[in-house]
Structures are given as C-alpha cells and as structure tokens.
Amino acid sequence: MTLETAGASASSATATLASQQVAPTVETAQGTATSAGRQAPPRGRAAATASPLYRTGTLPTMRCQAGQIRAGSAASYRTFVTKTVRCLNRAWKTQFRKTNLSFSHPNLRFSSTTKVTTPCGRWPSSAGGMYCSSNRTIYIGVTREVLKNPFVPNHAQFIAHEYGHHVQHLAGIINYYSSSIWRASSSTKLAFSRRLELQADCLGSAFLRQAADDLPVDPAHWDAMVSWVRDNGHKNWPKNDHGKGRSQAYWMERGFNAGSPSACNTWSAPTGRVA
Fold first, then answer.
1. Is the pLDDT confidence value at 21 over 60?
2. Distance between CA 58 and CA 44 in Å, rounded?
3. Lower Cβ count inside 10 Å, N or C end of the chain?
4. Residue 49 in contact with residue 201, Cβ under 8 Å?
5. Does residue 178 contact residue 132 with C-beta atoms inside 8 Å?
6. Which residues contact 91 (CB under 8 A, 6 or more apart)?
7. Cβ–Cβ contacts within 10 Å for residue 110, how many?
8. What are the tens digits of pLDDT across the range 225-252?
C-alpha cells in the first residue's frame, strides 16, 4: 500500500457539508424537553461549545462487517457504504441515548454524477460526497474516479465524516453554524466552516477507532492515511474552508485516539488548531 493509494479518497479531501441555505435562528436558550421525553438540542453557541455529546464517553465498540470494495465495482461500493452507514446508525443511536437528545437515521442517496441539485444547493464539484441538513440526506458519489481506489479505511473515514455532519445537525451544532455565518464576512464564514469540517473529521475518526477491528483498520493503514491527509488534505479546498492538512490530521488523530466525541470540541479550540 502506497501513501498515494491510501489517501486517494481520504475524507478530508472529498467530503463537504451543504447547509449554507438553512434558515438561521436567533434563539439562544438551552433546549427544552419535548413531549416525547427527549430534549431539543441546545441553542446558540452552547450547542457547539458545550454539547451533551461531549459528556457521553466512548462510542460503543462496533461489529461492522461491511465487506470489501472491488476496484471498478459500483455494486460493491454501494454495499460497503450502506453497511457502514448501518453501523454508524447503531453507534450514534447508542451515543445519543446517553444525552436524552432525539436521534434519527439520515437518508442515503447514491449518484453516478455530481451534477445534482439538493435542497441545500448544488453538489460542490470538488466533493465526493456531501450532507444536506435540510432533508437529512447523505449524498455519495459513485463515480469512476472513486471506484479506482478500493482501500476500505479511506472510504470508511469519508462516510463517517459525512455522517458526522448528521450528528452535528441533530445536536444543534449546524443550526448554530448557520446562524453564525448569516451575513458574516468571508473570513468569518471560512473560520466557522473549518471548525465544522474539522469536527466532522474528528467524529468520523472516533467511530473508525471503535469499528477498527472489523473494517479493518490496522496501525499501518491509519498512520499512512493520516500522513497523506497531513500533506494533501487541503489541496481540494483552495479557499481553506476545510482546514489545512495538518489541522485535518490533528483532529483525525484526536478522534481516533479517544474513540469519543469528547475529543472533538473544535468550537472551543484555539485558532491555531483550526487553521
């Protein structure tokens, strides 16, 4: 396995969030109990800086036999993605149960082209996948370029990153993000985007740690992937809306080492860690 092969579809280089068209909110009160006995997520900055998810401990150790991806095989890739998302559903449902926040599965949609219009806008041309919070849907590209690389850990991290945006949505973090960038300057929007994307890197890596035995992800694979991201993760994002490669690698390592959302509070991190 070369570093080029290991990183050809690393999450930070191919994933994005499309939620900028979500209507903002000006509420700042903490979430209140719903009629179903669950709590609405916190509102305002507290949703991001003091999320109940940060106090839930490690994610459950997952049996996640998602199978292998055969180079050039769209069917094997769809099967792998679908099974991995099912693992993510189980893991995050367990985690949300510890918070008393409501949980729901995301929708999953495959596309053979990135020429897709979603409720959140067009699919960014540089992204291999995206999450739209308006319809709670993860969009995954099944393109010729993606199918060239059958390296399972990369794709698993990529999928877990996109699922991380769904977690952020359910936790109220995306709501805070959307309201914060409303009419903000370009530099402020980019700074908030980096915190959002780097947190998704971290959340995805925390899951990967807990499912590493089955996927599988061994130390050599992980180290190669992180090394590739450190050197190349920023290259698809010239506006620096996803963070520099070293920032992406840092938050991936934090999430993987902890196996817990507690390591993923990018919103309280110093500026240098989310550059």
1. no
2. 25
3. N
4. no
5. no
6. 59, 60, 62, 207, 210, 211
7. 15
8. 999 999 999 998 889 999 999 999 999 9
Q: Look at residue 139 and tell me whether its pLDDT is greater than 70.
A: yes
Q: What is the DSSP string of the chain?
A: --HHHHHTT-HHHHEEEE-TTSPP----SPP-B-TTSPBPPP-TTHHHHS-GGGGS-SPPP---------TT-HHHHHHHHHHHHHHHHHHHHHHHHTTTB---PPEEEEES-S--EETTEEPPTT-SEEEETTTTEEEEE--HHHHT---HHHHHHHHHHHHHHHHHHHTTHHHHHHHHHTT--HHHHHHHHHHHHHHHHHHHHHHHHHTTTTTT--HHHHHHHHHHHHHHTTTT-TT-SS--HHHHHHHHHHHHHH-SGGG--GGGS-GGGG-
Residue with tokens 């897709």: 116
